[in-house]
Amino acid sequence: MKKITRIVAAGLTLMALLVPTMVSAAEFMKSADDSGNVVLSSTETHKNLYTAGGSVSVNSTTKGDVFAAGGTVTIDGPVEQDAVITGGTLTINNNIGGDVRLAGGTVTINAQVGGDVLAAGGTLVISEKASVGGDVVVAGGTVTINAPVSGKVWLAGGTVIINSKIGGPVTIRGDKSVTFGPKAEVTGAVKVWGQQEPVVQDGAQVSPIDFQKKNANFSTAQVARAVFLGGLIWVLAYLFLALVLSWVAPKRIASFNTQVKAHFWMNTVIGLAGLVVTPIVAILLCVVVVGYQLAFLLIAAYLLALAVSWALAVMWTGSWLYQLIRRQATMHVGWQTAIVGALAFTFVRFIPVVGSVICFIIFVACLGQFLTNIKHALVEKAGEVKE
Fold first, then answer.
1. Which of 142, 180, 330, 361 has the smallest count of CB within 10 Å of its CB?
2. In which band, very low, low, confident or very high, does the pLDDT at 8 lie, cut at 50, 70 and 90?
């Protein structure tokens, strides 16, 4: 047990030093005033850009990667490498040289993407102005592909529309309808799971479709049971962990909640970076023969950090709501806030797409603050050792 604890602690140390240091060493651009909005001029050039705010507009050129979070995020400047963005309304209007990873309520891509597109949201559109050089993996309520895609396509949604040329095989899971528009051109294998047969409009050139009908009644009942049981287990597990945290370290949790609130968007960017970068670094370490042990440490720490951060997100939500309702100056921590947070998360998660995005953003912000706190503790400890 002690050995496992030491391994996880070492992994947390590595993760905490890696992610916040990486973000602080990069360019973090925040609002220039009290509005909370971020506007980056087209005359600016950044290497690796990290930014967050209520409304984010990136007109600048980015030589490296972009990590952005906000209620509304618009990318109008070119990005030479990858883009990782989360928020309410996300729009990409300029070229992305590498991969794109997006999670939002409404997601629109109007430009060239050199690599893959991985996206989730309520409404997702890859318009006719865009093109994708790699694969597309998208899940949402309504999914529309009007741009040419060079690689494979995997889509899941209520309503799915393809109206462009697809270079690789296509796999679709459509709950309501699947339509191939008049400009669709798919020469690879096509597999469709759905309640209704896909519609192939006049002019479309589509390979023979392997269609498998999904039983609507059975599927709905099965999904309902899975969602209910999964949600119940999730609520009980994180409610228990939140109660333990509030009982063991109420003052630290109260301080943590205040820090999350004071630097919410900065924490969101740090958490987003940790969420995406840590698995990538672990995979790269596995390639090196002597690095697999570090990779194991990172993954163990990563999983623990995710679990703790979800519990902290539940506690933070409850404290914030409790403060709002009671109109208190400080954020209270106790069993009441743990229960309020768990109930709030449960109800919000059942709001289609938007609810999941809200919960995800709160979780990511708490993950960012969690990593930052560990880093600060390590730095202070190192200072004490030197003295």
1. 330
2. very low
